[in-house]
Design a protein that fits this description.
- The chain is built from 31 helices and 35 strands.
- It is α/β, with parallel strands linked by helices and 947 residues long.
- α3 packs parallel to α13, α8 packs across α9 and α16 packs across α26.
- The N terminus and C terminus are likely disordered.
- Keywords: Receptor.
- This is Glutamate receptor.
Length: 947
């Protein structure tokens, strides 16, 4: 039978070849070309294998399994994609095991798959990514959200869901939105949990928040282990819990938390996308489960409500691929469905561009060293790199939204729904996107507007927190570990009114302690605390060291006269200042000796010069304006000069006896008398102050004098002033003297630099006020306060107690209690007389009066201008020859004649100005009448008649 069949088959094959040759020779060339062109479609493979790898019996797997099967069917039934090529998928179950997942991945690669879809576990994805890198098979994961999988180490890993990188930034924005500064992270201790929480720590740090405690548990941990973990977390002060676990074991966290009373009022629970995946998969809703989750805030992948998504969800319950009853739907079903379509569309484009589905042996796997593992069955996909690039260029709209990738191989436009669990379901309170942050507007609507992620643009609807509270929880409490707040108090030697040791509880007393206790009493919660003296009691402690001890967690806070300065704010947090402070200079003073020239002190030299000049200038202007009109301003030149001086300076006392008759002269005089009135009043007030108020003087005029000198300067022991003078003002340390008691202040100031003392003391204003009061104002502050600061309570960085106490200090200030405490401890005589930096500061300068002089000068200029314009107009009408009847008929050369006329003309003008106004008017009147008589009148015959 076999012998018969073989010849027969060979004969048939030969006939086919002959028939093909005949057709080739007979058919026209055009038909053959068409056949050749049609051979491209026939080169496509009839079927292509894709691998699917995930845990079928899991929250994600039960949703992904029917979605993938439905997607493969939809692709195979669509004639517009992969025409002529059937898509086969080969499913392998990882069974929630890293070892099993690795073995199943190896078995899957033996089937020459061109792409692998899955896995859902980030840990397994890390291992499989090494396989696909070697075999050049792209890995499309719809469930592995570990951010580190996007690294350059895994070029063939492509995530078709959102990375936890964006989800953790969404959690950080939530924490910042509600004003919390510390969170406790509860996570599963695997690649998925560790790497996600690591990104959360980075995101919180950008907002000046942090993870105060990391509560990690092993996958599959028992309830007793979780109970121990939550008990330890509950001892911390933070009450904001971020839960980042697997969907299949996450609910046990809330079950244990409920039993420990950790879901009551004051707690905050934020769950990542695993919780909505569980809740969406519940069919029907489990009321017991919902009772565990009341008030929880969770994030869910945001997917636009498109028509294709609605159509798919409507056919979900009718899918024939679901086993063991209806599978719960969640967002991972849509990602899994889109992953199949992404592979199909990329494969279609790959084949259209001439891509070949071929595999070759891996030379690295030939020598197995005698192993029984059939590693040679693992073959390299020759077109894998080209196919990967095709996948990265895909851009289409799927069920989950836009499917396209950015430069980091992440899906574009990552966004989440912010949900609040309440009642028997969830309520969406807003959205988050990396485009605009938190918003109550859907992200797809915001993409059409410019991005705006400012804090003022972050909005969410109201939340019902655990315990059915609508008020935002404070987010922290004092830890239940039995340890009170450790508060360091400086053990001062001087100025004990502010702080001092006390034998009775609480062991310290003073102004600063009373302010702190009053602020603590205003807080709505108890603050157990104990005071610990810092210092040996023999000298004041160094306050910079005290603040450093708080930053090093050796103390929880520092209460006392701690000045808020820049270097300290870098390592600790301060409350609102409860007392203003600043550095001032104190120097010995003496009463100023009276001077016989004290009457010159009210004005500066410049003011005296300008005032005197204006007296003479105004006198001259009035003389010019009055000379032609007023007989009192006429006479011999010597008499007129004396009149100018007398009139000028007599206006100072308003005792001028000359009357002004011209309108311009009266105008100038009125304005000048107003200026004189102001100057007299100012001079009188200043001179009265100088002669009646006690004047104190000092060689030191302020901090500038100290900087320029070489004399020693006293500084309080332990004060920040030492570093400030050395580092900021560049004063040599050898000039600074540490003062350890108030007695040293007095002794060294009295001795002075020549007697082994100091020229001045630089200290903070509160200490100096108390010192001056106790020395009966024997010394004075000189110059101005050259730094501005305040005293505050120091706490460790990001301590929420600092914020609450700041509010309490402001409340004390507003209701007057802060002033009452001040009066109780710091009642002293005020030394109100301070020395200015220079005597010139109290003298009247030209700067205060230049406006008056400007007005007066302008009035004089305008008056003179009007006067000379009027004189010029009169001079045009006036002719000296007519009055003197002198004929100019000289037989001199023309040039000398012109020179004589010019000189006589200028002399005539001066003479004209010097004449009386009445005389000029009389001459002009007579000239006009003579001109009228000499004018000829016409006769009856039209000829002029001569008189």
């Amino acid at each position: 039978m076999v012998a018969f069949l073989i010849p027969s088959s060979c004969h048939i094959e030969m006939r086919r070849k002959i028939l093909f040759l005949i057709l080739y020779l007979w058919m026209p060339m055009e038909i053959m070309v068409g056949a050749r062109n049609g051979s491209v479609s026939s080169s496509r493979p009839r079927s292509v294998n894709i691998g699917v790898l995930f845990t079928t019996n899991s929250v994600i797997g039960r949703a992904a399994s029917p979605a993938i099967a439905a997607a493969v069917d939809d692709v195979n039934s669509d004639p517009n994609i992969l025409s002529g090529t059937k898509l086969n998928f080969i499913l392998h179950d990882t069974n929630c095991s890293g070892f099993v997942g690795t073995v199943e991945a190896l078995q899957l690669m033996e089937n020459e798959v061109v792409v692998a879809i899955g896995p859902q576990s980030s840990g397994i994805a890390h291992v499989i990514s090494h396989f696909v890198n070697e075999l050049h098979v792209p890995l499309l994961s719809f469930g592995a959200t570990d951010p580190t999988l996007s690294s350059l180490q895994y070029p063939y890993f492509l995530r078709t869901t959102q990375s936890d990188h964006f989800q953790m930034y969404a959690v950080a924005d939530l924490v910042e939105h509600y004003g919390w500064r510390e969170v406790i992270a509860i996570f599963v201790d695997d690649d998925y949990g560790r790497n996600g929480i690591s990104v959360l720590g980075d995101a919180l740090a950008k907002n000046r928040a942090k993870i105060s405690y990391k509560a990690a548990f092993t996958p599959g941990a028992s309830k007793s282990e979780i109970n121990d973990l939550l008990v330890g977390a509950n001892l911390m002060e933070s009450r904001v819990f971020v839960v980042h676990v697997n969907p299949d074991s996450g609910l046990s966290i809330f079950s244990v938390a409920k039993s420990l009373g950790m879901t009551s009022n004051g707690y905050v629970w934020i769950a990542t996308d695993w919780l909505p995946s569980v809740l969406d998969s519940m069919e029907p809703v489990d009321l017991d489960t919902m009772n565990l989750l009341q008030g929880v805030v969770a994030l869910r992948h945001h997917m636009p409500d498109t028509d294709i998504k609605k159509n798919f969800m409507s056919r979900w319950n009718n899918l024939k691929y679901k086993e063991n009853g209806p599978a719960g739907f969640n967002s991972y079903a849509l990602y899994a469905y889109d992953s199949v379509w992404l592979a199909a569309q990329a494969l279609d484009a790959f084949l259209d561009k001439g891509g070949k589905i071929t595999f070759s042996d891996d030379p690295k796997l030939h020598d197995t060293n005698g192993s029984k593992l059939h590693l040679r069955s693992l073959r390299i996909f020759d077109g894998g790199e080209q196919f990967l690039q095709t996948l990265l260029r895909m851009n289409f709209t799927g069920l989950s939204g836009n499917i396209s990738f950015d430069a980091d191989k992440n899906l574009v436009h990552p966004a989440y729904d912010v949900l609040n669990v309440g009642g028997t379901g969830t309520r969406r309170i807003g959205y988050w996107s990396n485009y605009s942050g938190l918003s109550v507007i859907a992200p797809e609507q915001l993409y059409t507007k410019p991005p705006n992620s400012s804090s003022s643009n972050q909005h969410l609807y109201s939340v019902i927190w655990p315990g059915e509270s609508t008020a935002t929880p404070r987010g922290w409490v004092f830890p239940n570990n039995g340890r009170p707040l450790r508060i360091a108090v400086p053990n001062r030697v001087t100025y004990k009114e502010f702080l001092s040791k006390d034998k009775s509880p609480p062991g310290v007393k003073g102004y600063c302690i009373d302010v702190f206790e009053a602020a603590i009493a205003l807080l709505p919660y108890p603050v157990p605390h104990t005071y610990i003296l810092y210092g040996d009691g023999k000298r004041n402690p160094v306050y910079n060291d005290l603040v450093t001890q708080v930053a090093l967690n050796n103390y929880d806070a520092a209460v006392g006269d701690v000045t808020i300065i820049t270097n300290r704010t870098k390592i600790v947090d301060f409350t609102q200042p409860y007392m203003e402070s600043g550095l001032v200079v104190v120097a010995p003073v003496q009463q100023a000796k009276s001077s016989p020239w004290a009457f010159l002190k009210p004005f500066t030299v410049q003011m005296w010069c300008v005032t005197g000049s204006f007296f003479l200038f105004v006198g001259a202007v009035v003389w010019i304006l009055e000379h032609r009109f007023n007989n009192e301003f006429r006479g011999p030149p010597c008499h007129q000069l004396i009149t100018i001086f007398w009139f000028s300076f007599s206006t100072m006392f308003f005792s001028h006896r000359e009357n002004t008759v011209s309108a311009l002269g009266r105008l100038v005089l009125i304005i000048w008398l107003f200026v004189v009135l102001i100057i007299n009043s100012s001079y009188t007030a200043s001179l009265t102050s100088i002669l009646t108020v006690q004047q104190l003087t000092s060689r030191i005029e302020g901090i500038d004098t100290l900087i320029s000198s070489t004399e020693p300067i006293g500084v309080q022991d332990g004060s920040f002033a030492w570093n400030y003078l050395v580092d900021d003002l560049n004063i040599a340390e050898s000039r600074l003297v540490k003062l350890k008691s108030m007695e040293e202040y007095t002794i060294l100031l009295k001795r002075g630099p020549k007697g082994g003392g100091v020229a001045a003391i630089v200290d903070e204003l509160p200490y100096i006020e108390l010192f001056l009061s106790k020395t009966n104002c024997e010394f004075r502050t000189v110059g101005q306060e050259f730094t501005k600061s305040g005293w505050g309570f120091a706490f460790q960085r990001d301590s929420p107690l600092a914020v609450d106490l700041s509010t309490a200090v402001l409340q004390l200030s507003e209701n007057g209690d802060l002033q009452k405490i001040h009066d109780k401890w710091l009642t002293y005589k005020e030394c109100s007389m301070e020395l200015s930096e220079s005597d010139a500061n109290g003298r009247l300068s030209l700067k205060s009066f230049w406006g008056l002089f400007l007005i007066c000068g302008t009035a004089c200029f305008l008056a003179l201008t009007a006067f000379f314009c009027r004189v010029c107009c009169q001079y045009r009408r006036f002719s000296p020859e007519d009055e003197e009847n002198v004929e100019v008929e000289e037989i001199e050369p023309a040039r000398s004649s012109r020179r004589t006329l010019r000189s006589s003309s200028f002399k005539d003008l001066i003479d004209f100005i010097d004449r009386r106004e009445a005389e000029i008017k009389e001459i002009l009147k007579r000239k006009n009448s003579d001109n009228n008589k000499q004018r000829p009148s016409p006769s009856s015959d039209g000829q002029p008649t001569t008189p």
